[in-house]
## 1
Amino acid sequence: MISIKTPTDIKDLARGAVLLGTGGGGDPYIGELFLQAQLDKGRTPNIVPVDSIADDALVITIAGVGSPPVMLEYLVSDDTLLEILARMETLLGRKVDALISAEIGGINSMFPLALSAMTGLPVLDGDGVGRAVPRTEMCTFSIYGCLATPAVVLDELGNSVVFETIDDLTAEAVLRSITAALGASLFGAFYPMSGAQAKATAVRNTVTQTQEIGRCIRTARDGSGDVFAQLLGYLNSRPGRCAHLLFDGKIVDVTHETRDGWHWGRVTIVPLTASKDVFTVDIQNEFTVARFNGRTVTVMPDLISILDRESAEPITAERLAYGQRVKVIGSSADPLLRTPKALAVMGPRNFGLDEDFIPIEQLV
Amino acid sequence: MISIKTPTDIKDLARGAVLLGTGGGGDPYIGELFLQAQLDKGRTPNIVPVDSIADDALVITIAGVGSPPVMLEYLVSDDTLLEILARMETLLGRKVDALISAEIGGINSMFPLALSAMTGLPVLDGDGVGRAVPRTEMCTFSIYGCLATPAVVLDELGNSVVFETIDDLTAEAVLRSITAALGASLFGAFYPMSGAQAKATAVRNTVTQTQEIGRCIRTARDGSGDVFAQLLGYLNSRPGRCAHLLFDGKIVDVTHETRDGWHWGRVTIVPLTASKDVFTVDIQNEFTVARFNGRTVTVMPDLISILDRESAEPITAERLAYGQRVKVIGSSADPLLRTPKALAVMGPRNFGLDEDFIPIEQLV
């Protein structure tokens, strides 16, 4: 089983989490620091397979909500995570048996692991999406029948909110509004579910895969081979999944706009050669659609990742800048995200795109 | 002691609540219907003096939050009010001993009375402001040391939120954001306080005064005397308080605008004679400042009420219309609202007015 015991393990996990964050999900840096602080105290997370959990176990997600730059100001404390756990247990009237990441892409890969290290509670090797997504209801837990609430959120100042909503769209609306009202970063517990529900809905093995992606990039970089060939080799080795190099070039334009609580933008990339090809990636918190000369080559919920073309270090959307030389990788989402039921919640039209989902393997 | 036993009693109370609502607070009509439904079942509210409550009693406010037109669509049910009470008792770990109105002006005069009728719990003859105000922290409970939370809010659809904030400005921000997110009218319990705190902070006798104002208008209207003379006589009979007729005329302009979650506007009134005088009343949910030829004659937190010039029926801001013939009354706020501490929270500058509070008795 995967283990997180050294700074290198954390760094590998973080690197993989940025790749799966597909531009969003928050820079895991703060989470790395926090998890490292646990390792420094001799505490390591206890990661177990999704299928090892008992049907009647109580599983919850632990997540940071809000703007990662604000999170940096209000660095989460041990007490906050322990308080969230205690409040959720009081609310539900029983002990929590296991934790699971809400989304493995970005910063929320880290907090369940940190709380596991603190408490010894197992963390399931899976999550609700296998990537990053911008909204509460965009996850397999919700799509396949769990509810996001009752949920508890806290901030570091001492404000707290418990909410229970009749559906997850409403949960998202309440959570987003509270985050805006409190003006600071929140941490919370969501999606209380049984072990049986976790087994029926989770995207599996994603903690392991995230660490392996990061490790693959690191070891390939340290070796003599082609880093991207090795990374694509790893991504394509996952059963039923595929990945492709979509483009290689330099960034000639990046637009950023914050509107309606979202980070919108577009990256334009051209080849390093004299070719007239143009490659664009649209941003709505995450990378939503990649187009080669105007033709879609990868679209939500499939994954688009932009990496430094030499080091293969994945880059978050807010760090993209003019002149960067990058490679873009597209990869297929977990099959649980590609069903009609899932596409109704997180297909292209849910991101304002006027096109239907076509799998990357048909587009490339 | 005041009693509410007949439809006329309710109507009197509602009429007084509109006058004290100073344009805002919500049309009490839905509350009237709801309270009448309790009377129809043979249940009457149990109103007791503020000073009769034991120091160690637990007192809470019960209030509707949000847009009164939306409230009309989702008419509050008995179950909702009982559920709020039960949840507050669970949250606080003890039985509630008494209810008190958050604000006596407008619709929130009615709900504590209805819940009292349903449960037999006493309602204190007082409230947190003696008028209507647009924000949670603008009340004597908050100003003199009680906290608005822990609080519980519910809607009729089954959504619920419990929140606890470090101060009442934050409570207001959270409450406003939740109301916007849920998009429907909410009902809640706020300001859990001890009997000792209620006695130290409440504006006293306001349920009685509200009903007496309504009754005074009704009986004066049915009699042969001058309705306004009798109403001013009553308002001036309250110890330490004064009231004046500010203007008599017809409305020649009303502007309404909804911006930042507030109802903004201005009413312009001119005399029925050929005089060139101009009288204006600014609206920010409530009437905030009345000016005669540009000179302030009454300003927050003193009360401005606009009434039909024949029937003396008080008119809410949203029902003001071109051509209405009206009289405007100004009256002094309760002394608890005029201290430096209170004016720091609900003086003119808190409503964006560039002037300091001057009592009506010095202005008129």
Note: The domain at 7-204 of chain B is CATH 3.40.1610.10 (CV3147-like fold).
## 2
Amino acid sequence: MTADTRVPPARPDPDAAAFHALFESVAAIGRTERGGLNRLAASAEEGQARDVVCAWLAERGFALQIDPVGNVYARLGLAGAGSDSPCILTGSHLDSQPRGGRYDGAYGVVGACVAADAIRRARPAGCTHDLAVVIWTNEEGARFAPSMLGSGVYAGQYATDYALASQDGQGLSLREALQAIGYHGSGQGPSSPAACVELHIEQGPELERQGARIGVVEGNWGTMKYIVTFQGVAAHTGPTPMAERRDALLAAGHLIVACRSLSDRTGGRLLSSVGRLDVEPNSTNVVAERVRLYAEMRATDNAMLEQACADFESAVQEAARAAGVQAQPVRVTDRPAGRFDAALCDRIEQAATGLGLSTRRLHTVAGHDAVSLRRRCPAAMVFVPSVKGISHNEAEHTAPEDLEAGVEVLASVLWGLVHQPVA
Amino acid sequence: MTADTRVPPARPDPDAAAFHALFESVAAIGRTERGGLNRLAASAEEGQARDVVCAWLAERGFALQIDPVGNVYARLGLAGAGSDSPCILTGSHLDSQPRGGRYDGAYGVVGACVAADAIRRARPAGCTHDLAVVIWTNEEGARFAPSMLGSGVYAGQYATDYALASQDGQGLSLREALQAIGYHGSGQGPSSPAACVELHIEQGPELERQGARIGVVEGNWGTMKYIVTFQGVAAHTGPTPMAERRDALLAAGHLIVACRSLSDRTGGRLLSSVGRLDVEPNSTNVVAERVRLYAEMRATDNAMLEQACADFESAVQEAARAAGVQAQPVRVTDRPAGRFDAALCDRIEQAATGLGLSTRRLHTVAGHDAVSLRRRCPAAMVFVPSVKGISHNEAEHTAPEDLEAGVEVLASVLWGLVHQPVA
């Protein structure tokens, strides 16, 4: 990366200063006291971050479209003017966890902007494909469920109306939230996506441990998520005899412990977590009437994952029996392990090697918009290291030189794709 | 009970119609769809309920004082006009759980109003003591901690400033909340309380099971409450290796299960519960950074209770170790089992028997304002049956004839006390 130059280079040369400037502008919106982010999907803050990115792209001649679920597509117009021309997609998301880090998602959006702008400035000739920067809606799933909702709609996984009807904890629908920030559009995304490359921080410790600069993401772990509702009976925690209590929180306690033991049995190869509990009425001296428990399990091995799901569902019933309550488990995410496009992965590896950057092939444990996109076109991801693997935490960090390296790799890959796409 | 009569009776005869009318007026404020109550301490709704009761008392000539923590004292002025004259107290609270029942607390306030008014109408002569109806602030502890806060201040257990500084979940102090509803007063309660009798629903199943109409509450179970803070590290539930997770919710799960097992070991003689968990950030795919867990244990045997506390504190550390997190347990309530005034209990039993009502002696498992008051003056309680023992639940119910019987007993006891108090 160099500073912008007056003479257009023959190859894309992303503007490092522009990258950091735009990244910091975006990171300032929804910034928490401890330097993280609280920028939930379709919140006022996420709307402001979208506005900043859209203005940056519009100033540079990108043509913006917003679809009904709020996905933003900024086309460069490299080859042909119609929306039917085949198109390369790159982007990520601007929404965060309630106390998330500043790199998760936003890095991929800002990196895509700067990489795509480098291609514009390199004045490519003979392109066979157009290029679009994309902001996907509600990747995190922290405000609206399920996660990866915007990319899921574009990929044909979810109907638009299903996505728009999703409600946050206050009962506000995604449709209403998008209308409030001005991102319930009537446009549409490229009808002929030819490939999708997403740039992202790793969010795990592998690259740092291996001393690799660039991660070539070959595939994704399988992920299964459940929402389990335990229905007990509200009662005074004083006079109600123990034998007569129907304690929904006791059932949740049993299931939290059982869920962890599923992982322990595999020596940690199965990842599992219960990260959220909604307890009603959640008062000290009332036996909990109802608990909603949000659990997930991840593995690279689909057979292991299916077995874990069966064991989990048994554990739900055992927990309910132990507490004398009713249980209803619903599997809300069913995403088996899968692989990204092999040819795209090779391109990423070649681009990194060409730039003198060490690489490592790995599988993403976290879900990403590119995993959704795989249903519709060849897709792959570029990872850069996360310091200590810390993510979904305000302390999330990636070194500036690693951020720049990722953008350079992305620009190089995109440069190849608009001239000679895969498949 | 009869309807009001023009000729004053020689003995107090509570007005049943007036009781039901006032009770229904109060129960309508903060009423939930399912017929329960959501009337948290010092909320707008509780303020309205206080207003209704205060207006009812003022119309009948009671002199009202509001102290700084919002306790309302309505004196009848039976004997001497000064605030120094010895005084019999009767009353309860108007605050409820978030989804509580309509009888818990409000019955004791309305019953006290109607019983005291019956004494007024009976035109007592030769009284040695005055009589005051009291509304105590924040008995439930659902909005502000600890519970029984207003009566605790009057009894000398808590300093006024400590109580006023207590904050609700939104960070609003009790002082601010009382100011908002106009109940941060500058008055004071009777300086020479001679006895306190509180009327309340049982909230447990014993009276109904024994077929007794009136419960003579001889004492209270011991109650120990803890707030345990588990401090973990927020992390992505995907890429973070299981061995590196510091999961505060996992620790909470272990402790919930361990807490229940403390009760199971005693065959249910030790009551225990975890009714509330505050989870941060409480997002599906973030390992929980911090959990506040609210636990309580109750027993009639103080030695058993102390042993349970020691075992609980060990379980806290084991749970923390199992999840790799830090733990900080704080014992926020330390109320050993104790006995009410024996002479007052005898008076209650005699009054009930004189009215042809069957009685049963029992100990309250739940905390009550009268338990606080015991620190300052002889105290006791009158219980009436709760249908199926259901309480802290919108389905809480007591039969109208049982409500009336309790008020009659209370009036009879108070009639005796203003003429010839105990001690």
Note: Residues 74 and 346 of chain A are 26 Å apart (CA to CA).
